[in-house]
Amino acid sequence: MADINWYLNRLKKMSIKEVVHRSKCKVYDNKIKNGYRLLEEKYEARFIKLPRNYNLESEKKEEFLNQCDLILNDKIIIFDNIITMDYDNKFLVDPFTRDAWSKSIYSKVSFRKSNLKNDPKVIWEINKQQYLFDLGFAYQLTRDDKYAKKVLIEIEEWINQNPLYMGINWTSGLEISLRALCWMYSLSLTKDYISKNDIDINNILHYIRVKTEFIFNKLSLHSSANNHLIGELTLLLYSSYFIECDEAYKWRSKSMKMLQEQINNQFYCDGINKEQSINYQIHTMEMYFLCEYLLNLNNTTLGNQVISTLKKACDYISGLSEKDGLIFNIGDEDGGHIIRVQNHCQSVLDILQLGSLVLKEKKIYENKIKKFDLKVFILFGSKYNEFMNNNSFIERNYSTQIFQQGGVYVRDGSINDIKYKVMLDFGNIGMEPLNAHAHCDILSINMNINEKPFLIDCGTYKYHQDEGFRNYFRGVKAHNTISINENNHFEFLGPFLCGTSPQTKIKSINEDSIECISNVYKNIGCLIGRKLLFSDEVIYIEDEIINENKEEIYVTRYYNFDNNVKCLINNNICECEIEGIKLKLKFDKDSKLKLSTGWQSTRFYHKVECNLLEVVDIVNAKSTNKLTCELIR
């Protein structure tokens, strides 16, 4: 069981309707525990109508097939680590600890304890079986049976090691959904092999049906209706087209209706995902794109409202990223993908390419570099080649972009011919009521210099077995923001559970400046504000601290630098150098500057040291101070 405090805090976040829903889920759990099983029937597979006769350049083909040959030898990539799955029970054993997860019924498997020996994220990542997508495409390219055989062997081995409803791999609806999605794509890519050899895949289809009906009865609703729900609805939609069975109609009706309803629950009207995480925004966009892709193949659509919102979501991702796909690392990032090709992941470029093709909107990708994406190529074939050949790079002249509902201000400009991209986060911390992926980034600044990271959001690193790093990376110290008495912006109630979002208001906003104020520290009688002012020679940051207490407070402003940035303190100036470019952060003469070692996680399960600047000031009781910083060349 999870810690009792987690259960109590989680219960407080639930409405009466959610308690009723979860009670019904418990009834279903007990039904399964008491032996209920769907009877296997004779099924007909309706494979996804993927392109045929792929024309891939010989160099890319050779590189890809070399990677697939590693998969044939049980070598796969997990969080940028190559692991060799040559051990028994590979779908139940952690590759790093070599300890096995429980084979108990799913409702009895504990994965929320704070003292777990194994990290559930690792075993779930393996069990997505996303490497089957590679093998399926390798068969399409070569017509070599060894790739198709391996797909079927891997699926059957998974079924043998994971009996119905037993073990860790039946505990997460999202992970079940992504695995089944990968099965459907890999089977569709190998359908010619299955057909010519008259291979019986009825047991596999039965497992997909069981998984889908299981998810149908345990949807992540109410406070859990985040990206997990969209993943589950994606499974319902795909299964409804893939398997001819009695449940297909209700799966399709439910998924279509809820995907249309959920678009406004997942995204603000300006395109920002309400979870306030770039990573989970891209996940949710990809799931919607894959649903629209499938529906287009079957001559239907999710409709204009969904498409309009997804176009705005693309505009946000495009505006926040550089032309090579570099993007500010806002909120949680877990290293996951919905569909992925091993060793070929470029989340920003591929989501914009996918969006441009699915939504039939060429301009979505026109301000990004031409970079081949194998996943999108597999989905679109020759249409992808036409898209890339006809897509000319157009430098979009951004100046200021304001996403007021989602709470992001983006400014592109230059200081003495040095280009910068700056963003200020003034939005909610996440999706209420859980705020599961929230970070203490209220009024946080991120900045690129000449399209390279300079001031950074430090990332995520790990969710479990984190030695305290989970709270470090989502804490105030890992963000370029303001803290009073070293307090975080909100309370951490669990690994994916945070307190209520503070309120931040805009005082003024235009092309050249923004000023906001937040009640994040109202519990200790303080308000914090931040103003950004841009000119051709300086970026001016003014932080206002309103102390209504009878005691003085100390204010810390944090500045986290990318690990490639060199820093040196000289009195009230922090001198910085990035790729030969020298910049200065100049503070008030009374401010105390301290340069220390912080942590940066550019990708999940990896961390490096970086420079952390802490700027400390005292604010007297019953007073207001304005603290300044100037970025100059």
How are the SSEs ordered, and which strands pair?
Elements: H1 4-12, H2 16-33, H3 58-72, E1 75-78, E2 81-84, H4 120-127, H5 131-142, H6 145-161, H7 173-189, H8 191-196, H9 202-216, H10 227-242, H11 248-266, H12 278-297, H13 304-320, H14 347-358, H15 374-380, H16 382-390, E3 400-403, E4 408-415, E5 418-425, E6 445-449, E7 452-455, H17 469-474, E8 482-484, E9 492-494, E10 497-498, E11 504-509, E12 513-518, E13 526-534, E14 539-547, E15 553-560, E16 566-570, E17 573-578, E18 581-587, E19 592-600, E20 608-619, E21 623-632
Which characteristics define this entry?
five-stranded antiparallel sheet; 633 residues; 21 strands; alpha+beta; single chain; eight-stranded antiparallel sheet; 17 helices
- Helicity, as a percent range: 25-40%
Mean pLDDT: 95
Terminal Cα separation, in Å?
55 Å
Query: In percent terms, what proportion of residues is strand?
Result: 15-25%
Notes on the structure:
By secondary structure, the protein is of the alpha+beta class. Helices cover 35% and strands 21% of the residues. An 8-stranded antiparallel sheet has the order 11-12-13-14-21-18-17-16, with no helix packed on it. The longest helix is centred in the middle third of the chain and has 20 residues, at 278-297. The model has no long low-confidence stretch (mean pLDDT 95).
